[in-house]
Specification:
Chain A: It is found in: Cell membrane. Chain A: Keywords: Cell membrane, Membrane, Transmembrane, Transmembrane helix. Chain A: It is a multi-pass membrane protein. The structure holds two protein chains of two kinds. By secondary structure, chain A is mainly alpha-helical. Chain A folds into two domains: about 260 residues, no CATH class; about 90 residues, 3-Layer(aba) Sandwich (D-Maltodextrin-Binding Protein, domain 2). Helix content of chain A is about 70%, strand content about 5%. In chain A, strands 2-1-3-4 form a four-stranded mixed beta sheet, with helices on both faces. In chain A, helix 7 runs parallel beside helix 10, helix 7 runs antiparallel to helix 11 and helix 10 packs parallel to helix 14. The longest helix of chain A has about 35 residues. Chain A is elongated. The relative contact order of chain A is 0.11. By secondary structure, chain B is of the alpha/beta class. Chain B has two domains: about 220 residues, 3-Layer(aba) Sandwich (Rossmann fold); about 70 residues. Chain B is built from ten helices and 14 strands. Chain B starts with a strand and ends with a helix. The chains are: A mainly alpha, B alpha/beta. At the A-B interface, helix 1 and helix 8 of A face strand 6 and helix 3 of B.
């Protein structure tokens, strides 16, 4: 038999691989992933389902303005146009429901309204067509009419107000990012602590440590659960975006959404390194699963506070509170990507926040692995952090 | 050859090990005996690198034991541990890989071992669904899967049924026959006597007796026993302290050759031997001394 000299990385990857196989491919994880993905898919499809059918609105036209209106409506899109010879015919067509609405004799006929959006469009087309017709009647050439009607489109400028949110969609993007970040940190953090305690309580750690270094064991666990979470996250995002694209909702999302989603993954990675290694470290302080709750409380509390802070921040993204929260770790892990989704954040703040969070993660990595190294073989009642740090490894 | 040299270890104010030394030659089975809390587990944990000694050294084939060499050791801790929610075959193979085997080697070796241990049918079952006895066998498979060069087993026989004891005993002897030093601790002294070449007795963190089983027994010889078929009472004729027990005469501090001549002249000698103590007796004696 050949005995390969396993590299340090191989040990780390073996541990990560086991976590992925045993936890990621476990029935419960696969089922929960499928359920979540279905829910995300339904949520993404909901707007178009509620919005009814997307088929064109059938509009009947008659009278002098009909040709000009037809041109306007066709340019707008979303209308199926029929031109009638008389206003009566057009009106009858509405009654027969061969068209949804008809414009005749300066009136818009419909059975029970056709929705604000279509009404506004038709009204705009009517006004333009009427002006065109009037100008033509006044003896202007088509070119003159064209010039007269060419106007610079209105430029939309949003003046940011303290505590203001630019749009509802941005708000929801921020909300969804904060919820997903929270979930994607909370779940694996608990799994890491549970996994550490499982190995301690089943005493298997003693065999593991004869062929692995503590950092490989802890690191592999953090990486394995990180990969599982990342796969879950990607599955959710892919299904959400895929369904949105299929139902045509994607183009309605704010332009920054994709960027915010991508940068969220970066923030998540740093925040996960921070919380994940700390969870492993504090998990090793106890020997029984029942006790893991008590040592995890500070981590869960700070995660929950980060989340609540991010929710609060949604309503005041430019306040001092929001700025501080999105720069100070560990809160910045959730707060900064949330803030970035809803408002323009100065680059220096993003850089500072990322740097501080990365430093905190490095500190957590050192603290978590020291705690782990010193207390993972200790069995008995719960160990204090100070006691663990005083112990020789 | 594995040598454990002058280990010292304290836990707070408690001295766990106070200069413990022992060794196992290639192919030698060493029994490690001691009362609870005597220091067996601590010694083995230090040998396996799970615990650090305050001072002392582990030497393997003449050089300090390194991490990569230790990876080729087989270890069974006294507190058994397996992943409850991992399949039996997968779990054994996983440990093979951790010990440096390739995936294919580990898988093959796990399948072979589990077959030897009559667990082939349970290869796809979760460990938590196995009986305690079968879990013990899986534990043994975990410590043997990488064809270890050295075996260090803490109480490998505890909780085993007689059949599993035989399987384990055979496995240990096989490894030793293949040239591996084997050190195991046990409270079952009859097993130690049957399986071991040498015995090390530890008490309160110190080695109180050690050596080949035969030598230890010879050193602790109790008395000469002569069985003679004769109607005559020979008690007064033997020298030394003589006790008669039917046809048997138990003689201490006498001249054995003279006693043999006297007995042979008196009748048919059916037995002439020094009573040897069992390991259990030696242990009790050593511990109470």
């Amino acid at each position: 038999m050949t005995q390969n000299e396993p590299s340090k990385m191989r040990g780390l990857m073996l541990v990560a691989g086991r976590e992925i196989r045993v936890r990621g491919l476990s029935k419960s994880n696969v089922i929960s992933l499928v359920v979540t993905v279905v829910i995300v898919g339904i949520l993404a499809a909901l707007p178009s389902l509620i919005g009814g059918d997307d088929s064109d609105t059938r509009v009947g036209l008659s009278g002098d303005t009909a040709p000009a209106m037809q041109a306007q409506l066709e340019a707008m899109g979303g209308f199926d146009i029929t031109v009638f010879d008389t206003a009566d015919e057009a009106e009858r067509a509405v009654e027969d429901e061969t068209v949804d609405a008809a414009v005749a004799d300066g009136s818009l006929f419909s059975l029970d309204g056709i929705g604000n959006e279509d009404e506004t469009k038709i009204d705009a087309a009517w006004q333009t067509a009427s002006v065109q017709t009037n100008l033509s009647d006044a003896g202007l050439s088509d070119q003159q009419i064209g010039e007269a009607l060419t106007v610079q489109p209105l430029e939309f400028v949003t003046l940011e107000s303290e505590g203001g949110v630019s749009s509802t969609l941005d708000y929801f993007t921020g909300l969804i990012i904060s919820i997903i970040m929270f979930m994607m940190l909370m779940t694996p953090v608990q799994y890491i602590a549970m996994g550490v305690v499982e190995e301690k309580s089943s005493r298997i750690v003693e065999i593991l440590l004869t062929s692995l270094k503590p950092w490989q064991l802890l690191g592999g666990k953090v990486i394995g659960l990180g990969v599982i979470s990342l796969v879950n996250l990607i599955a959710m995002v892919a299904v959400g975006l895929g369904v949105s694209a299929a139902t045509g909702m994607l183009s309605d999302l704010p332009p920054g959404t994709a960027g915010a989603a991508v940068s969220s993954i970066g923030w998540w990675l740093i925040a996960f390194a921070l919380f994940g290694t700390l969870a492993g470290g504090v998990g090793s302080l106890v020997s029984r699963q029942e006790e893991s709750g008590s040592v995890l409380t500070p981590l869960i509390m700070s995660l929950t506070l980060s989340y609540l802070g991010a929710i609060f921040l949604l309503n005041a993204p430019t306040s001092t509170f929001a700025e501080v929260l999105s720069i100070v770790p560990p809160f910045s892990g959730i707060a900064m990507p949330t803030r970035m989704a809803i408002t323009e954040v100065p680059a220096w703040q993003i850089g500072l926040s990322a740097l501080l969070l990365a430093l905190a993660a490095a500190g957590a990595l050192a603290l978590g692995s020291q705690l782990y190294k010193r207390s993972v073989l200790y069995t008995g009642s719960r160990m204090k952090i100070s006691e663990a740090l005083r112990r020789a490894a | 050859m594995l040598e454990i040299k002058d280990l010292h270890k304290r836990f707070g104010d408690t001295v766990a090990l106070d200069g413990v030394s022992l060794s196992a030659e290639a192919g030698e089975v060493v029994g490690f005996v001691g009362a609870n809390g005597a220091g067996k587990t601590t010694t083995m944990r230090i040998a396996m690198g799970v615990l650090a000694a305050d001072s002392g050294q582990i030497v393997y084939d003449g050089a300090p034991l390194g991490v990569e060499q230790r990876r080729r050791f087989g270890y069974m801790p006294s507190e058994r541990g397996l992943y409850p929610k991992m399949k039996t075959g997968e779990q054994v193979a996983y440990f093979g890989e951790l010990h440096g085997m390739t995936k294919a080697e580990a898988k093959r070796s796990a399948a072979e071992l589990l077959e030897q241990l009559s667990l082939t049918e349970r290869i796809g079952d979760f460990v938590q669904d196995l009986s305690l006895g079968n879990q013990q066998r899986v534990q043994l498979a975990v410590s043997l899967v990488h064809d270890p060069e050295v075996l260090i087993l803490d109480e490998p026989f505890s909780g085993l049924d007689p059949i599993a004891v035989d399987v384990m005993g055979t496995a240990l002897r096989d490894r030793a026959a293949a040239g591996a030093p084997v050190i195991f601790s046990s409270h079952q002294l009859d097993l130690i006597e049957r399986l071991c070449d040498s015995v090390v007795i530890i008490g309160n963190g110190r080695i109180i007796a050690s050596g080949p089983v035969d030598e230890l027994k010879a050193k602790e010889v109790k008395q000469l026993r002569i069985s003679v078929e004769t109607g005559e009472d020979l008690t007064a004729r033997f020298s030394g302290t003589v006790t008669r027990d039917g046809d048997d005469y138990l003689i201490e501090d006498g001249d054995d050759q003279e006693a043999l001549r006297i007995a042979a002249a008196a009748g048919r000698v059916t037995r002439f031997a020094y009573d040897q103590p069992t390991i259990a007796e030696i242990f009790r004696e050593a511990v109470t001394r």
